[in-house]
Design brief:
Blueprint (H helix, E strand, L loop, with lengths): L6 E5 L3 H12 L3 E6 L10 H5 L9 E2 L2 H5 L5 E4 L5 H13 L3 E4 L12 H13 L3 E4 L10 H6 L5 E12 L5 H6 L6 H9 L7 H11 L6 E10 L4 E2 L4 E2 L4 E12 L2 E11 L5 E9 L2 E6 L4 H18 L3 E3 L14
Parallel strand pairs: 1-2, 1-4, 2-3, 4-5, 5-6, 6-15, 7-12
Antiparallel strand pairs: 7-13, 8-11, 9-10, 11-12, 13-14
Helix pairs in contact: 1-10, 4-5
Length: about 325
């Protein structure tokens, strides 16, 4: 049960940050501050910016120190995907003595590829007696924490395959554009070469492997376009037949050259959403979530549902593997 006395600052009030604020408030969290760099949001009540019922009394500011002066129990951080870019923002929060949950994808399991940043954040969190958690729905749950939990009744696990299919047409506009929907294949290839695509699959592979005790010697990733067979129109854009409808990413984790973890992600407009986990071992098991977890809704819910656990956790940089078993948390 959520603690009604839990107070929070919303750091970043974009589409995901606004959803987090709504989800957290529905669980009894009280907002005492909000941070955003958008001049159109600064000076307004968080309720107005995030579409909450009734005023919160928390005014959006572009000065993190001013918002953090309210001494929140937890900060919901939803700004960037890159660990190194998020680091100074998170250090400011941690140094203010606030616990923080961030949707920064690279911080969901940063110890493999972002060890320096992870170590620095862990040290700052411990020095100030607070906790920092990176999470969301993907990475953070569907392709890592969920299969880790589902592996519990297995006598032996030899391989794990996770498939996530998302209808990008039901997602927010930035996500649709991020996966390349509506672009031509040549432009898609150029954007991928420049680093576009879903962020966080290597982190999911590393987390899942760590959960079952595998030391991966390699993680490889491929990114390809999903091409539309017919015209598809969303609330935000139009995809013509032959255009890119989205992205198909495959991530493979190996142990001694043997593929043990396979993550298959397709996010494109017009797909039928679903999530599935397949185990090879004793026994062979397949689990499918028909309809899948809606990425935007689920990201906000995961963040909000983890707030009480993070507020009560031991200091340091944590992952979903370090906290008590996750679950829905209803309001008091």
């Amino acid at each position: 049960m959520a603690d009604e006395s839990l107070t929070a600052v919303q750091f970043g009030v974009g589409p995901i940050g606004a959803r987090v604020a709504r989800s957290a408030r529905a669980r009894g969290v009280s907002f005492v501050g909000a941070v955003d760099v958008d001049p159109g949001k600064v000076g307004r009540d968080l309720a107005d910016v995030a579409d909450l019922d009734g005023e919160t009394g928390a005014t959006v500011t572009d000065d993190p120190a001013a918002a953090l002066a309210a001494d929140p129990d937890v900060v919901f951080h939803a700004t960037v995907s890159a660990a190194e870019t998020a680091r100074p923002q998170l250090e400011t929060i941690l140094e203010a003595g606030a616990n923080v949950i961030t949707t920064c994808e690279e911080l969901v399991y940063p110890w493999r590829d972002h060890a320096e940043t992870a170590g620095a954040l862990d040290a700052v969190a411990r020095e100030n007696g607070v906790t920092c958690l990176g999470t969301g729905v993907n990475p953070g749950f569907v392709m890592d924490a969920l299969p880790a939990v589902l592996s519990t009744p297995m006598e032996r696990v030899e391989r794990i395959g996770v498939e996530r299919v998302q209808d990008a047409g039901s997602r927010r506009e930035p996500l649709q554009r991020k996966v390349g929907a509506g672009t031509d294949p040549d432009r898609f290839d150029a954007e991928v070469a420049a680093g576009a695509g879903h962020v966080g699959s290597p982190e999911s592979a590393a987390m899942l492997a760590a959960a079952v005790g595998w030391d991966l010697d390699g993680i490889a990733e491929t990114v390809e376009p999903v091409i539309a067979d017919e015209r598809v129109e969303t609330d935000h854009l139009v995809v013509e037949a032959g255009d890119v409808a989205g992205v198909h990413q495959r991530t493979r984790g190996t142990v001694d050259g043997d593929e043990r973890v396979t993550l298959d992600l397709r996010m494109a407009v017009g797909l039928d959403s679903r999530d599935a986990v397949d185990f090879t071992g004793d026994p062979d098991v397949s689990v499918t979530v028909d309809g899948g977890y809606h990425g935007d809704v689920a990201t906000a819910a995961v963040v909000a549902n983890r707030a009480p656990a993070v507020a009560a956790a031991d200091p340091g940089l944590a992952t979903m593997l370090d906290l008590p078993l996750p679950s829905f948390v209803r309001s008091a």
